[in-house]
Amino acid sequence: MKTASKCFLLPLFLFTVVSFSSELVLIPENILDVRTGKLIKGSIHIKNDTIVSISNEIKSSSLNIIELNGITLMPGLMDAHVHLIGNNELNGYESISESSEMATLYGVKNAKNTLLAGFTTVRNVGAGNFADVALRDAIKKGVVLGPRMIVSGPTLSISGGHGDNNLLPFDSNINEENHNIVNSPWEARKAVRINRKYGADLIKFTATGGVMSKNTDVNARQFTLEEMTAIVDEAHSHGMKVAAHAHGLKGITTAIKAGVDSVEHASFINEDAIDLAIKKGTFLSMDIYVSDYILGEGAKKGILEESLAKERTVGKLQRKNFMLAHSKGASMVFGTDAGIYDHGDNAKQFKYMVQFGMTPLEAIQASTINTANLFGIEMIGEVKKGFKADIIGVSSNPLKDISILEEIVFVMKNGVIYKDETN
Ligand code: ARG
């Protein structure tokens, strides 16, 4: 980086975000237009948190000018499925020893690692005690560093479902009291209302069992159509989106019929369900890297043997069905389930998306344009006039080698530079 002034780097040192009311110009080698895949020449003029123009002239000499020689700039990446709250090294029974306070402190570290890896917006789908709401707000206020967060609060689940805590005995007395464990349409509506009241932006529920939960079946549908419809209707009536965790086909199909905005995992989806998703405009968020981590590291990291056994079938089929969904033209977003593995390693999934059928540009669009659509946030996900100044930099063309996204050298969010390792 060559720069007239380093004032935009200030937050790195102070660990606090100052709101700048100034202007700067970034002059990169080129800019990736993620809509067309074209590399564009030009300098990016940023005022406060917004890109005000991209042009070849620099209007005033009083501006901060940052030359990024050899660097390709592109929009900040987005991940539609993360779990920032908690220490991801704790698995199985060890996980119940973690206090909410400790989980939140780990969240602070995880949020920073995620931002510095180039992810400027993430959707956090499931966190206890609304710790995700607190983290989102602390980031917004500049108390801690992290991506823009869209958060769900506690996941809604049936009793004994994937979103319940199934590790404790009945006489521990805590599980049946939780407001997010619901067993009828009206309980479900109440839980949506409570999540909204305490600050959730969207609703996440579990429509099938899961890999990482004890004593749940990935093929079993959890919640009836009536319950799922109640959740979606209640959430949508408050302008909240709904994400449904679902591996098995019955749960996937029921969730799509109920009108969810995204299906998470979608492992055993088939042609008919893909067609239905396309017809209803449902996004698919398929986390096709995490299986390698679970099967490679899981035993060492204390993941339960029954989870490893489930993963042995889920991972393979999910990748096959990712190819199918992509080839049929489903709307797909980038969602990783980071939190099972280290935060900041999110971009490892890009190569898998390319290996399983996407072009590098499509994989990048899944993490920019498509996520912005799913999140319902306008003016993010592209480096264009009027868009939020969420801009990241890489040292070579990611369309030629997608794995360069694992080595982000420049990160700006809302017009503030958080990382500059260019030289
Ligand atoms: N949170 C998910 C679950 O426990 C993770 C699934 C991971 N496996 C996969 N192949 N995507 O069900």
TrEMBL record:
Keywords: Hydrolase. Coiled coil: none annotated. Residues 72-416 form the Amidohydrolase-related domain. One of its GO terms (molecular function) is hydrolase activity, acting on carbon-nitrogen (but not peptide) bonds. InterPro entries: Amidohydro-rel (IPR006680), Metal-dep_hydrolase_composite (IPR011059), Metal_Hydrolase (IPR032466), Metallo-dep_Hydrolase (IPR051781), OTAase-like (IPR057744). It comes from the Bacteria. This is Amidohydrolase family protein. It comes from SAR86 cluster bacterium. The keyword Cell membrane does not apply.
